[in-house]
Amino acid sequence: MKTIKAKIRDILDHMDILSIPITDLENDDYLLNYGLRSINIVLFIKSLEQKFGFEFSDDDMILNNFKSINEIERLVKKYMK
Q: What single-letter DSSP state applies at residue 14?
């Protein structure tokens, strides 16, 4: 079974929106430095919601929650409780 981080990486890789290969990305790298932009963030969030089967609340729709794989994992875990 894939980890949450692996699933997040799969989504990013499938969307092909980063300027570096997903294998070169560290879990704490700032995603905006590698091509994640506002329109991509919206599509990425929708993909996360579909993959994990929940919707993020408006309160959690802040850039800091999506700045790195580690932060995204933390947020996803909050919804999976």
A: H
Structure tokens that stand for 30 in this block: 């700032």
Q: What is the residue type of 70?
A: N
Q: What is the pLDDT of residues 65-74, one digit of tens each?
A: 999 999 999 9
**Under 8 Å CB-to-CB from 74, ≥6 apart: which residues?**
65
> In whole angstroms, what is the distance from residue 48 CA to residue 8 CA?
7
Q: Answer yes or no: are the C-beta atoms of 27 and 71 closer than 8 Å.
A: no
The DSSP call for residue 2 is -
Other C-beta atoms lying within 10 Å of the C-beta of residue 31:
22
| Size (the chain), residues | 81
Would you say 1 and 36 are in contact if contact means Cβ atoms under 8 Å apart?
Answer: no
